[in-house]
Design a protein that fits this description.
This protein is mainly alpha-helical. It has one domain: Four Helix Bundle (Hemerythrin (Met), subunit A). It has helices spanning about 5-25, 30-50, 55, 60-65, 70-75, 85-100, 105-125. The chain is globular, with a radius of gyration of 15 Å.
Length: about 140
């Protein structure tokens, strides 16, 4: 993957993260809000993972085989991302329960998800500020 492709994929993931976060405020069931926050965090990690084509995947087929274990391994191994391991894991666990368990998340769970996502998002904004400079006409 060349530099231009990497930048295009990075920007795609950052924009998808923004979209997922924005949609969270527009939907009702808490289980979907938690899930959307988790996938917003996933896209931020993928935006960083683009720097490592062997981990990110050179082809769509390789990317389609990527698992959450692969993403956790990347977070654990990356000198920057290790700092978000705990809040990312909170989002992962809450999202998984919200999607697959017979469990109705409450306001407390939503607050935990929002706090964890805020920690992940804020870390990315602080560590990689150039990723978050929106082009003119794309202001929120």
């Amino acid at each position: 993957m060349n530099r231009a492709e990497s930048e295009r994929y990075r920007q795609f993931h950052v924009e998808r993260s923004w979209e997922n976060e924005r949609v969270t405020s527009q939907i009702e069931p808490i289980h979907w809000k938690i899930t959307m926050l988790f996938y917003s965090a996933v896209h931020l990690v993928l935006a960083k993972m683009v720097e490592s084509p062997l981990r990110y995947g050179e082809t769509q087929e390789e990317r389609a085989r990527r698992t959450h274990d692969d993403i956790f391994g990347y977070i654990r191994d990356d000198k920057y991302l290790i700092k978000i391991y705990r809040p990312y894991n909170v989002l992962f666990r809450l999202s998984r329960r919200a999607r697959y368990d017979v469990w109705k998340p409450g306001d407390h769970d939503m607050k935990n998800a929002e706090k964890a996502f805020g920690q992940v998002r804020d870390y990315f904004i602080k560590t990689f500020p150039n990723w978050f400079k929106r082009p003119r006409g794309k202001e929120a």
